[in-house]
Amino acid sequence: MLGKYRTTYLLKKYFLRVVAIIGSVLLFAGGPDYYSPRSLKHLWDIGHIVFFYAFATLILLDWSQNKKMSFSRQCIAIVLIALILGILIELVQAGTTRTTDLLDVTRNLLGTFVAISFSPQAYITLQKSYQRTFQTLTVGMVIFAIIPFAKAAADEWLAQKQLPVLSDFETPFEIDRWSGNSERSIEDEVYFHGKSSMKVVLNTSEYSGTSLKYFPGNWLNYRYLHLNIFNPGKEPLKIAFRIHDRRHTRGDQAYDDRFNKNYVLLNGWNQIEIRLEQVENAPKERKLDLGNVQELGIFAHRLPHPRVIFIDRVSLERIQTLSRSQVRLPKSFPVLSLV
User: Fold this and answer.
1) Is there a contact between 210 and 298 (Cβ–Cβ < 8 Å)?
2) Rounded to two decimals, what is the model's pTM?
3) Cross-strand bridge partners of residue 293
4) pLDDT tens, position by position, 295-308
5) Fewer CB within 10 Å, N side or C side of the chain?
6) Where are the alpha helices (DSSP H) in the chain?
7) Contact 288, 137 (CB under 8 A)
8) Residues of the chain with pLDDT > 90: what percent?
């Protein structure tokens, strides 16, 4: 019986060592980039919990033989070690291509709490009521930490099912597909399709807008990009569109290496349709890869005062859905053909 217990103990220890070694490498090498799927980014964050769980458990296993140190002192010592080590890791990462995130220190401590609350010493030392309370609180915090990953994974699955619709703002997590320096919110008072749209408050910074950043990037089977933008103001609003692919992201991101086009939004709903053939042929020295589209940006340049727009029903189409007569163009603005 003792031999079986010792074998299990050693296997657990070797496994945790492997996890700790792999985790220590991944803290400084590899990992998601700016355009990686949200689920991968959040999964990477969860890795901090796993790594420090393994790290703390290994120390507790070694210290379990130390009769001179009480379990409470072991807990205090290991939490301090995890805190100091976590801060040092973030400081070292600040000098690399990795970004510093103080929330990672919190995740490190959470992994440590998991190790402590489920350690053999906890079962032996703590009263059952205290131990269960500690474990319940720890599990609750772990679940809370996993929620962003679950939300992102659910929305990424939904985005695939929604194709050819890229964003319709009818689901709770869909707004997270968008980023940018403008305030964004889901509104149910203004909409073109369904029951809601996305409100974007454009500010007075040099470039103010929003970007569709997380979406299925294979547009090869489609011919048009179609979207609807509502301008509640009486004054026309000039906005710019940009579309780029993965290669542009990894290059010097030159202006003439992507699709750029200006449009003018009149008061009310503006239906915009962009030929993907134009997008493909937009780069000066190559063709844009429609199989790896990375981002769709919508922005204004140096507005004199804040403006509001509403975006709804962004979709890919195989056929043209708008005729020239349906597109309202102001006579006083030199706007290129929308289609």
Assistant:
1) yes
2) 0.77
3) 245
4) 999 999 999 999 99
5) N
6) 2-26, 38-63, 71-93, 102-117, 120-125, 128-162, 246-250, 276-280
7) no
8) 50
